[in-house]
Amino acid sequence: MINRHVLSVLVENHSGVLSRVAGLFSRRGYNIDSLTVGETEDTTVSRMTIVVRGDDYTLEQIKKQLHKLVDVIRVVTLDPEASVYRELVLVKVNADADSRAAISEIADIFRAKIIDVSAGTMTVEITGDESKVKAFIDLVKPYGIRELARTGITALQRGEREIKNLN
Amino acid sequence: MKLNGAEILLNCLLEHQVDTIFGFPGGAVLNIYDALTKYTDRITHYLTSHEQGAAHAADGYARSTGKVGVCLATSGPGATNLVTGIATAYMDSVPMVAITGNVPVSLLGKDSFQEVDITGITMPITKHNFIVKDVHELADTVRRAFRIAQEGRPGPVLIDIPKDVTGNVCDYESAEPLPIQPITKTITEEALEKAASLLRDSKRPFVYAGGGVINADASNELVDFAERVSAPVCCSLMGLGGFPGDHRLFTGMIGMHGAKTSNLAATQCDLFIGIGARFSDRVVSNVKRFAPAAEILHIDIDPAEINKNIQTHHHVIGDLKHVIERLNAKIDPMKRPSWIQQIETWKQQFPLYAGSTGLQPHAIVRRIHDLTNGEAIIATEVGQNQIWAAQGYQFTRPRTFISSGGLGTMGFGLGAAIGAQVGNPGRRVINIAGDGSFRMNCNELATAVEYRLPVIVVILNNHALGMVRQWQDLFYDSRFSQTTLGNSTNFAKLAEAYGALGLDIVKPEQVEPVLTQALAANRTVVINCEIDPDDKVFPIVPPGAAIEEVITE
To answer: For an interface test with A, which of B91, B105, B123 has the most A Cβ atoms less than 10 Å from its Cβ?
Structure first.
């Protein structure tokens, strides 16, 4: 059964690592929904959050193959119940004098921020998990989405759980 | 001690007991070649005709000695010429360090003369690779490269060094490399106990040994294991020599061109034990119908191989020598007379190439075996020659069969034979070749002759790309598309032009005297041996079939 999985991966923070990971996914035919990467509390280490689609066989293979990369320190599949997921999305929608107030109201409800306004557009920044972002996009779609940019999911485990203490 | 990068590199090679490298100079490695002049008493550099030959030689050196093979090439085309050799080593888990020069750091990324992104190119075909942009990081990078190449499942590592880094000077302090520790912490008592109980419950266990057995130096332990549990043993192509070919429990190779006994045993066994092997498609064929009656026990050093190509019932991960040793300690000797009898019956019933004589390839390979007392190191090219060599020569010791299994690299054999001969000066090294493969990289004859290496090349010449031709014959209604090579090359004369001894075998009665002459010549020899283009490799499992459904003639 094909499922969506969120992997948190600690890697050495130096050049070439992203291309090693991306190359591994492409040559073995694994599908990436999104991949984010950035420095962690330890500047020599980066964390990648990779959202993949696959059955249990594929997930197991992805984890094992990632482990074989010399620059990969740790690979964890996040448990959705015990993790927080966030994504930041910028949406530029058509907004004239008539629709501006309505869009602004939707943004308020979602605690989204309006970060740019022009005569014909509004650009909204929304942060949240997947369902919140999707709900927001669905609501503003009728106004006409001009452009959309999303960061992909980044994630941490809740509470005392830390990637360092897990396998 | 202040040294330049090139000298640091060579000192680091010496730290790792490297006394032999294979390479080809060029602009970006001028500093390294200049430094080499000061190390000629400790490092011997073998100049090949082509960088690909250097990579295959380093590979053949590593496979035949168990040491790390080292090759060296310049930037750009020098580096890309290594690529096939590196990929070959990667697919067969060969420990190798490939060193390439690159343009100076300030010229990187500017499409400079002879610049390629070789770390980018070799990312998917190396265990790991490095570009060193600061001479201060050079020594530790080289040390890491040697560690990575050897640790766990071995593989090739590439180090790319821009020209200015080999010229810049910094402090160097020599360091003793830490011993490579076998991976044992993954071997759990629980996993071993379960494996032992599977063995105790089994009535018809069958062992499938791969190249991992040779890498782990676990042949003796494997023999003890097989005798103890009374299990017949087959080998993958890569595993040949890992279990003695003359042992009563040996059933031959398994898979697409496996002995029928091996393939029948796999189908009828109730416990299939893969040891240091990866269940490649050339072994398994139709995965849904493989070993249908068996539970599968997989013992390997690489966790990523477990459940990759086949679903296993149980596995043990770790250094094979340790795993098998500890397993042996748990098992009391078992007897399985009826199973062993069944194997024996099959062996009698299905011999390979029964009645093969004269200029038939199997008969020639058998002759080579007999005349060398089965003690030669046999390199091969790829195709029919490779399989005939694998089937016909009885390999009794590890590191004696040097063949490109995973990548199937035509043109591998001569370079590999050169490396094997350099690494084993007292041993007889023979490259069993086909005419198609030989002409891919026959330029390395110049290398063999120049260094007075008594390598013998036996070309099984069918004037065709025999394996592809065989497939066209069997599965494409004999439409021979681009697989006929013609008669225009006189290989014996070609050999003479290179300064080697060139001989011909065109009649059956010449086989023995010509082989004997070659073995006595003590120089590089090429024997052109005319065979029938319709001689085929058998058995063969047709694509998509189960492995016991072999075509035998």
So the answer is: B123
